Each structure stands twice: as structure tokens, then as C-alpha cells.
Known about the structure:
alpha+beta; Fructose-1,6-Bisphosphatase, Chain A, domain 1; five-stranded mixed sheet; 45% helix; disordered N terminus; binds zinc ion
Amino acid sequence: MNQPITMMALLSFxxxxxxxxxxxxxxxxxxxxxxxxxxxxxxxxxxxxDSLTVRQRALIYCLxxxxxxxxxxxxxxxxxxxxxxxxxxxxIYTAYNxxxxxxxxxxxxxxxxxxxxxxxxxxxxxxxxxxxAFSVKFFHEAVRSLDTEQIPVGEGQSVDEFLAEITPVIFNxxxxxxxxxxxxxxxxxxxxxxxxxxxxxxxxxxxxxYGLRKDSNDQRPITHGLNSRLVRQxxxxxxxVYRIGGLYSSAIEKIxxxxxxxxxxxxxxxxxxxxxxxxxxxxxxxxxxxxxxxxAWVQDTESLVDFVNGFTESYGDALGIKASWEALVxxxxxxxxxxxxxxxxxAQWFEDNSPVARQFKKEKVKGVSxxxxxxxxxxxxxxxxxxxGINLPNSNWIRSEYGSKSVxxxxxxxxxxxxxxxxxxxEEFVCCEYEKxxxxxxxxxxxxxxxxxxxxLGHGSGKLLxxxxxxxxxxxxxxxxxxxxDLFGLYYMPDAKILELGLLDNAEAYKAEYYKYMMNGLMxxxxxxxxxxxxxxxxMRNRSMIAHWILDKGSAEKVVELKKNSLGKTxxxxxxxxxxxxxxxxxxxxxxxxxxxxxxxxxxxxxxxYAVKVDPELHGEVKAxxxxxxxxxxxxxxxxxxxxxxxxxGEITDVKxxxxxxxxxxxxxxxKDYSPLPTYND
Length: 682
Ligand code: ZN
């Protein structure tokens, strides 16, 4: 997966569920769990659980266990001190017997909750390190009050030495300042705080090391570097591979154990084969086997239960080579799948009729399998913050020869919607009654449709010209790829074909998506950026880029405007929806050209001009309006709790699901029951 495509993590702030089929009684189900800092913790419901067979439940249970055992890996991938920080904080949380009513202790709790949420010391979206608001003095006293064995000191280290090492990691803003450095004028490898590259490894080292391994004549290249850390030892650069017997072995052994358990309950032989290949990959670290696994996985479209488990997405690496560990277990939502199937059956029509130049189109769009799924467990880089749609595998040649699996996660979208009802967001930020009505009525439908089009068609569309390096766009690659997929969806939403296929039932419904998209890209997503910071995360950059480009290109004809009302509040006003559609088509054609030709300079110009910069005045205004509503701009999810009922010979005879666990209890349970890695993995 050199090309960090996929995973559309669009946060759906608000919409309404008027047009959804009635679900079961939900009186006692609370979607909003708790809120701290800029984070809201939600809960999702595993709709349809009751309709599963015992065997399917047992399979989900085993795969869920495999999903939870990788959590430590992600912490360590994000920064080499993350496990030390988390374990120190958790020891304080468990054993501290000082005054818990102080400001310091309150701030300590918030910091710990943020570390859990972000799987480390850096903000999940912003990539920058967040700082605690408790004092160094409090921290040192709290650590010193612990028993020595509760403190994760390094080998041969005293508590004082440990504190001297860990304190700047937590408190000094200059140390490990950014998880991913994306400024292409700098050395993005040595300045990134993630742990994909060892001490002293530079961007030049990485480009040389993987440049040598790339063979432009190889039509079916493995994704070099995906599952390893690159280190420099005695001047020699080499890989530490994630596998049994290699890096992260103790966690991978547990994952493999539960995959073997899962094999006992598979639905069919092709699903069993998928799991066997994944086990082989974890055993050997062979990326050739990984490709075999990805092919088997994408070809298994019959099974009801499905999963992602492995080193998958490379957003966490500035060069998009190394993949973070993630997991998701799910089963098909057959009601919603009927709609996505219609999209995928018509994939070729959409490809043929797009505004993209012919030489950049796929002559034959292959096997875009699309389904709607219910998430049953989130793990690794999908937990607690999760995407609402996924399109895998990432390997370009596998995608073009075998197609990809594209999913939208309906129970997560639904939980966002339910949690946001009545928040006052629409009333505050939407300009006019006309759009407010459309959004209330249609945005649940249009959100899902846009995600479907993005995942089922957008990522799978277009082709690279012969000889173009798939990494040619470097740090701008992710943003351009996400823009391509979003634009494909935006362009088609107003199309008559959408009505003809029954995907929307009203010719104006698409305006709900257009309005929300512009409002989000120009304004409301700024609520998630720290004051003084620019936009870093690639999905956010993509939305900002599209919205600002349309605002700019349509300015002469006032297609879209930013206007202030008499109270000085800014609103997005869309004057000409039809013209806006034309503009999305123009940008789609240009973005596809950039991707197909590998035009780095054009990608850079587009992203730097439209995607990154933040207007400080508007930024301050949006944050103030958000604060006044009390809405947390970032959301994540707690998992349900599964409990296996076993017969005397150990066979799973049923699996119970409950939802009552609190955020802190869940995190502490995971840290206690699923934490196999040593504190330092060097
Ligand atoms: Zn995407």
C-alpha cells in the first residue's frame, strides 16, 4: 500500500434519520457517553446481532479478540514512548491515594483520557502533541508515590532517571512536537515523532532504501516497507519486520491465536483460506503472502461476517510507506447493501460518463464490490475514532486486477446522527430556511450516498498513465486521492442517473450534501483545529481544498459566497447549485489528470494554495460558536462487551453482548487484559 488511499473518515456532525427504516426499541440506549477536551465519546449499537446464528456470533467473538490484541502495537507505532506514558498514567489512575479533588488531578484525568483516545501523546487528527495542564510537580510526586514495580522504568533505570527521560516527552512542546511532519521543504522523516523509523534515519535514507527495491518493470510489486520499522544500526540501514519472532511478536502471537480459534467457526472455505493466509503473513512477515491474502480477501464476497486485521493504512507515515495496525470486525447490513449494490452494478456507466479526460479513465472498471456493514468491534487505528467507509485493499495492481471491497458502516453513521440530534448545530451554522429543511430531511440519505459514491466508485476510478510512479505525489498524494474520491461523489449526486437508479427520490436532495460540504470545508471543520495551527490531516485538507477552490473559481459569478449577518456571524451562501456542480466536474478532471500524470508540482500548488491555510479570524469565530453550543468537534466510539458462553469441552455455545461499560473502564480493561508488548520495543 504505497498509495495511502481509502478510509474516508468524514465526521458526520449532524443529520436526521427521518428516512431510515424503523429500528428496535432504543429507549434505554445512550449514544452520548461522555465529553472532555475537544472529544465526545459515543457508543454504537450492533444492529442485527439477534439475527445472527450462534456460529456467526462465535466467529465474530474470536475475530474481536484478535482485533483487541493489537492495541499496544499502534501505541508503539505512534511514538516509542507511548506505552511508557500510558502505563505510567494508568498506574497513577489505579494507585494514587492523594487528594483527587485538586485541579491537578482533574487535569490528569483529562490528559489520560486524551492519551487513550489518540492512542498516544499526539492529537488524533491534528498530529501535534497535546500538552497536559497538570504541573510537573504533581506528576513527579504522583509517580514517586507508586510502588517501583508499577513504574515502567527502562532497563537498569532508577525512578529519577526514568522521570528525567519521560518528563520532556510529556511536557516539553518541542520534544516530539508532531506525529507526522508534512512540510515538504523539511526532512519529513527525521522530524516526525512516529516510530516507523529509528533514530538517525533520514528522508534520504528512506528514499534510497525503498528506491532500490522498486522495480518499475514489475507489474505486480509488493508493498515494500509496509510491515516494518526502518532502522540504522552501525551505519547500516535495515528493516525490523513485524512478525512472529520479529518486532511486536508477543502481540502478533495473540492475534494469531485468536485467528486460529476463528477458523473453527468460519462460514465457508474461502473465508477459512483468508484467515489461513493472514496467519501465514503474520508468521513470516512475507509481503508476497500479504498480497495473496489481500486477493483471497477481496474475492470472498459471499461471507456475511468479514474483517480487517493488519498493517493497513499509511496516513501515519509522511511518505506513506509504513502502515499502522488496525482492525474492524463486521457483518453485512443487507437492507442497506441493496442500495450500494445498485451503485457497483453501474460502476462502468459512472466511469464512462465522468468529466475526466478519456486517457485517464479505466476502460474496464473491475469488481467494485460494495456493501453496507454493521461494525461489531473496532480495534487499533479504527478505535476509538473510526471511519464510516472503507475501501481495501490498497495495492494498486490488486485493485486493478481483482477489484476492491468497498463498505459503508451504517451503524456508525447512525450513531453519529442519533448523538447529534438536537445539538443546535444546524440552527447555528446553516444560512437559510431552505437549506435547513433540506438538510433535516435528506442529509442522512445524502451522507450515506456520498460515502458510497466516494468508496465504491471514486477510489476505484481512473488510472495512472504507463510508467507513472504511484508515489509521485509524495506528501500530497493522500490529499489528492481523497479529493478525487470526494469529487467523484459530489459530481454525480445531482445527476439524473441517481434518481433513475432510485438512490435518491428527490431532485433537490443533493443540495443538502453540497451545502454541508461547503459549510464544512470553508468553516465548521475549523472547529477541530487548534488556534494558530494550519490544516494537517489529509481528509480535512481535501475538504478544505475542494471548498476553497470552488469558492475561488466561482467568485466572479458569485456561485458560493461567505456572508456575514447583522450580528457579524459568517455563513456560507450557495447562489447557484447547478454551476457549483460544473465546478466540481472541472476540479475532478484536473485532480484526475494530476494523479494520472503524477504531476507533483500541480498537486503541490493546489494543496498549498487551497487546502492548508486557515483564516485566523474566521477560525476564532467558528470555535466560539461551537463552544457556545457545547459540541465536541472530535468523536470516537466505545465498543460493546462480548462474553462467550462455552460448553464443557470449550466450544462456544453463545455470545452475549452488553453496552454498559464506561469509557475509563473499557480503556483500563483493554490495558489490563490485552497488553502483551514490552514498554520499549527497540
Ligand atoms: Zn477515501
